[in-house]
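Incident review: delayed structure delivery

Summary: a single-chain prediction request sat in the queue longer than the usual turnaround. Root cause was a stuck worker, restarted by the on-call engineer. No data loss occurred. The affected request and its eventual output are reproduced below so the record is complete for anyone auditing the incident later.

Affected input:
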Amino acid sequence: MSGKKYRKNAEKVKTQKYPPQEAFELLEQFEGSKFDESVDVAVRLGVDPKQSDQMVRGAVVLPHGTGKKVRVLVIAKGEKLQEAESSGVDYSGGEDLINKIKTGWVDFDKVIATPDMMGSLSKVAKVLGPRGLMPNPKSGTVTFELKKAIDEQKKGKVEFRIDKEGILHSMIGKKSFGAAKLCENFQALMEVVVKQKPATSKGVYLRTVAVSSTHSPSVLIDPLKLM
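Output delivered after worker restart:
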């Protein structure tokens, strides 16, 4: 997007914080790019990321998905492998796929594994970990309930985790969704984030909440208008 178009969009943003619906209606008014831009949320939380008991992470199935096709890989064996293959998974296997990952193959977006395969999968943790692909029980990607896990990922389950600055980033859809659907996805995400507030976190939990599309200015949302 040109700097001129960005500045024109920025002029539409007022200094005050917006109620969620108004924020997404404003985002919808921005002049966009030629492609369908992704819409992201950034939330600064009142937590100390250096404290293990203040780590905020979780996952949520967005009501309207993310608009992105998700390629799911399942690592399992025996009957569970057969269950995965009959549940619409893109790739499934055991040691054979683990060995393939060792060679650098990462043509997938999510990895689900049964608990009994995590020992073997640890061999490729250095490949999957840095890419955010390593299965984790907290995000529902280490489970024997494969059909449920695969369905959730295909429908648009997003995982979130604060960074070292205490900021949480998450994609909540595409600009083409329109304000109403984006707002519903946003509310679903924020409901889970609020429930994840650590007991040891003091003071204001939701410091700043901002939404933006790929090339747009950020629009601040009033945290007090969320719930």
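Verification: DSSP finds eight helices and nine strands in the chain.
Action items: add queue-age alerting; document worker restart procedure.
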